[in-house]
Amino acid sequence: MWLIVHALLIPDPIHGIPYKTLSRLQPWGDLGSLGIYSGLGFGGEIFDWFSIQCVDLRAPLVQVFMPPISTTHPVLILSDLREVEDIVTKRMSETDRADIMHTWFGLVAPRASIGLKSKSDAYRKQRSLWNVILSPSFLREVVAKNIHDVALELVNLWTKKAEQSQGFPFDARDDIQMAMLEATWRNMFGTPLHLVSIKSESLHLLQRDSSNVVTFKAASMPEFCSILDTLLLCLDWVIQGVTPRGYTWLFRATGILSRAEKRKDEILDNQICTARAKVRHGKSSGKDAMSLVLEKDARMSESTAVTDDALRDEVLELLLTGRSTTSGSFLWVLKYLTDHPTVQRKLRHQLSLRFEKCDTPGSPSAEQIMTASLPYLDAVIAETLRCSATVPVCFRETSLPCTILGHNIPAGTPLVLLTAGSFYQSPTMPHVAEELRSRTSRKAVAHKINHTRNSNSTSKQRMTCFNDFDPSRWIVDSMFNPDAVHMLPFSAGSRGCFGKKIAMLEMRILIVVLIMNFDFPKLAEPLSNYKSVDGLSRKPRQCHVSPRPLFR
């Protein structure tokens, strides 16, 4: 029986690529190792396990055996950032979205573009429609305005919390998550959920625990919040779990998922129908994503139009990523700035100088923040993305036979492309010989070398003290240099993060408003650890703040 199960679940390894012999001999492959790492002392931190395999085997390309992802091919883990960038930007015809992405996101949004193959008609239709939300006018007139309004509501909430808590810290995670969900909902439909305002109006201090952390009574939030929490919980479990299909079956069999899906569909369908009626009768404001998408959809032929089911799934994807990924990135910003008061003071000083003539102290307009040159702010954001590794992996699959670092890879092979992890700091990682790289990779690095020679800061200097949070590594000749450190926080290429522009703009405005209105003092060490929980993204396990209002 052991041999039969092993033969069915564990594929033959690819010649020449390192792997762990013990895992190859077990019918569950590397799942045991992943489960132990995730469950013993590293609960929920699964992303780093992939980079540890490269460190253990001392190779930039290794193979693991993971039956839930593939029983026909080993899973390849690539930790060489230069090769990763080459694959996702220059060799796009060779790879596509991995099937496991559709397995995961198919749980809650099977028609969303995040899980679709790039060459599919469904993906092309979705992208053609939703590109409207990345236009400069939408970013300026809709996204910037909405996140600025929500940021001011958050200032009001935290001013009240600071007063009631008498300076003791509180957990910021739910406030930030609700703020990002509120902003994303307004971007989508042009109407508010009032999530931050509800929390502010019903604020009531409950208790202070032995760590001096205060808690507030949970506000009664709209039903959609609990629905989204349920969907995110199911999605995170499926992504983290060693048997995604098993968890999918469990959530459906128990009715947990079906009940949430039914109400989610009803709520989103109502929003889509309302927006469609406004567009049909010429009453659309054009200031929300759904109106713009439906207007564009109406101009398409029937064969290229997108169904309401597909629209609903794409909206859900954007709401989930706004609620989880963007909020997670901003929580890391808060943690790093709170733990580095010198950086925080320097950032506030530069913001104060730049916006000293704004009409209201501490509250420059969305337009002012969006258009201002703020190199140190850009450096803080970049350094946070580098250190936090919010999305440190991307999943691809070879579409045709190709070569990676000198190895022949068959079509259909799953790839885990690492954009961050412990392999960066490991002295045991070997140098990759230039002749093993692709022609496009060698050509690209030649251009970068010539560019670096003209810079006053060398790569070695910029990467000194790799583990330190140091935004100054991004400043070259008093200007922000986005190429100062090689990283891919949003992946890259046509399948890179679709909402990158929105996320960066929202973080920019939220940071400015909060840093100019509050001082965030450093907290005791027990309230400031950097453990994470992995799922849709890598989020901090804790994020406490004790904001002190700068204006009364």
TrEMBL record:
Residue positions binding heme: C497
Gene3D superfamilies linked: Cytochrome P450
UniProt GO molecular function: heme binding; iron ion binding; monooxygenase activity; oxidoreductase activity, acting on paired donors, with incorporation or reduction of molecular oxygen
Keywords: Heme, Iron, Metal-binding, Monooxygenase, Oxidoreductase
Requisite cofactors: heme
Stored Pfam families: p450
Keyword Oxidoreductase among record annotations: yes
Sequence similarity: Belongs to the cytochrome P450 family.
PANTHER family in UniProt: CYTOCHROME P450 (PTHR24305), P450, PUTATIVE (EUROFUNG)-RELATED (PTHR24305:SF232)
Protein name: Cytochrome P450
